[in-house]
From TrEMBL:
Protein known as: low-specificity L-threonine aldolase
Pathway: Amino-acid degradation; L-threonine degradation via aldolase pathway; acetaldehyde and glycine from L-threonine: step 1/1
Biological role: Threonine aldolase involved in threonine degradation to glycine. May play a role in the removal of L-allo-threonine.
Gene giving rise to this polypeptide: LOC100800811
Example GO BP: L-threonine catabolic process
Length: 370
């Protein structure tokens, strides 16, 4: 069996990596920019390429200042800790949001910040009245944590990459101001949301006091995120970045690639979204698979195996991998694929044909085994 698998692996000459938009490789333009980047010590505040990226990102997002950080997780952690600067503070966030589920509980374990969970709707929003109801009464400060912050995520990954509208974000911002709270947006894929909604990205985050923007997801830079906010916010964030080990000296090498990504790849996001819808529509033609077409607003597609289908996600993923297509398994009956600028229309058609074969072949095998 091992020899057969080895032969199969050697025969695979085409790799279509749909696990995430984080898997993109640096383009030749990025590599050239990295090789020639002008650098200095950023911890001391003198790296010119980092300064250029941060200045451009602050302007693009409509904020006063910006700071490059190694990852989106660190960007969100720093942002929450700056706003919740007293241990025992509380942040209101969605129960399925990235900060709550996928960031190792850092806001609690490192920052002493209590997460107050509100149910996320299917579209990634939280009901405004539920957010307001979750805000602690200051009269109960002897017993309760002190609410300091509300967090939103745009696009909302666990909802399939759904976009939060500018109207909704503004309403949450108004609620935060009404109660003297801050608003942070985990904007890991905020450029995807901006393109999908047709709203300038600075307008989309206008109500936010801070935003974390991932550079290594939709727009395809190899490393890093940027957080934006007021000058005072960023000054505090810079200190926390150092505390957390995020001061990385000659980061201009990384920032140079990010600048290329901003220039070259934001304009490709609409194509990524179209390919995601093409894939989703094709998958809905495959008997045994189902995609909620309404949820495909950006570059993410969640695939459910219909009840009664005689195969499971693990088997389909294995079948696909043997043919060079990498897919993320979410559960025994759900898979996720993410489109990015290094996936072509031809790759989408190849993936569709393999999904069709996977369900047919694995389903027959399971039936014969029974």
């Amino acid at each position: 069996m091992r020899n057969v698998l080895a032969v199969q692996e050697n025969m695979v000459t085409r790799i279509v990596d749909l696990r995430s938009d984080t898997v993109t490789k640096p383009t030749e333009a990025m590599r050239a920019a990295m090789a020639s980047a002008e650098v200095d010590d950023d911890v001391l505040g003198y790296d010119p390429t980092a300064f250029r990226l941060e200045t451009e990102m602050a302007k693009t997002m409509g904020k006063d200042a910006a700071l490059f950080v190694p990852s989106g997780t660190m960007g969100n952690l720093i942002s929450v800790l700056v706003h919740c600067d007293v241990r025992g503070s509380e942040v209101i966030l969605g129960d399925t949001c990235h900060i709550n589920i996928f960031e190792n509980g850092g806001i609690a374990t490192i920052g002493g910040v209590h997460p107050r969970q509100v149910k996320n709707n299917d579209d990634g929003t939280m009901d405004i009245d539920l957010i307001e109801a979750a805000i602690r009464d200051p009269m109960g400060e002897l017993f309760y944590p002190t609410t300091k912050l509300i967090c939103l995520e745009n696009t909302h990954a666990n909802s399939g990459g759904r976009c939060l509208s500018v109207e909704y974000t503004d309403r949450v911002g108004e609620l935060a101001k009404k109660h003297g709270l801050k608003l942070h947006i985990d904007g890991a894929r905020i450029f995807n949301a901006s393109v999908a909604l047709g709203v300038p990205v600075d307008r989309l985050v206008q109500a936010a006091d801070s935003v974390s923007v991932c550079l290594s997801k939709g727009i395809g830079a190899p490393v890093g995120s940027v957080i934006v906010g007021s000058k005072n916010f960023i000054a505090k964030a810079r200190r926390l970045r150092k505390t957390l080990g995020g001061g990385m000296r000659q980061i201009g090498i990384l920032c140079a690639a990010a600048l290329v990504a901003l220039q070259e790849n934001v304009g490709k996001l609409e194509s990524d979204h179209k390919k995601a819808r093409l894939l989703a529509d094709g998958l809905n033609e495959v008997k045994g698979l189902r995609v909620d077409a309404c949820s495909v607003e950006t570059n993410m597609v969640f695939i459910d195996i219909e009840e009664g289908t005689k195969t499971r996600a693990e088997k389909i993923c294995k079948y696909m991998e043997e043919r060079g297509i990498l897919v993320m398994q979410e559960s025994s009956s759900r898979m996720r694929v993410v489109l990015h600028h290094q996936i072509s229309a031809s790759d989408v058609q190849y993936a569709l044909s393999c999904f069709q074969q996977a369900v047919a072949v694995k389903g027959v095998q399971k039936e014969m085994g029974n």
